[in-house]
Amino acid sequence: MEMPKMTERDRLADLETRQRKLTEDLETARRALRGKYAAMVNDVPIETLTEREFRELLTQAIRVGGSAALTTLKKLPPVT
């Protein structure tokens, strides 16, 4: 038995439904990953930074890329 061919309207509705589901799945995965990273902060002594410094540090590290940020930071002399 052959399935009836979908109309363009049905196909569009199906694609829109799939798109919504993919968007939801993407957001769920993004929240899970961000939650995992946020949990790591509990193990890092960040209390010496202000909220503004912490946010700026993360924003800039993400902007230039993790590897570039780490390479640059590791070149800095240790704080005494």
Overall number of strands: 0
- Global shape: elongated
How much is the average pLDDT? 93
Uncertain spans:
none
Task: Please tally the helical runs, counting DSSP H or I stretches of 4 or more residues.
Answer: 3
Task: Indicate the proportion of strand residues.
Answer: under 5%
Share in helix = over 70%
Going by helix content, strand content and strand pairing, the class is mainly alpha
Largest sheet: none
* Rg estimate, integer Å: 23 Å
Distance between the termini: 79 Å
Taken together, the total number of domains comes to 2
Order of helices and strands: HHH
SSE layout and pairings?
Layout: H1 8-40, H2 51-64, H3 66-75
Helix pairs in contact: 2-3
Write up what this structure looks like.
- Keywords: Coiled coil.
- The chain is mainly α and 80 residues long.
- The chain folds into two domains: 7-43; 45-79, no CATH class.
- Helices cover 71% and strands 0% of the residues.
- The protein is built from three helices and no strands.
- The chain has helices spanning 8-40, 51-64, 66-75.
- α2 packs across α3.
- The relative contact order is 0.05.
- The model has no long low-confidence stretch (mean pLDDT 93).
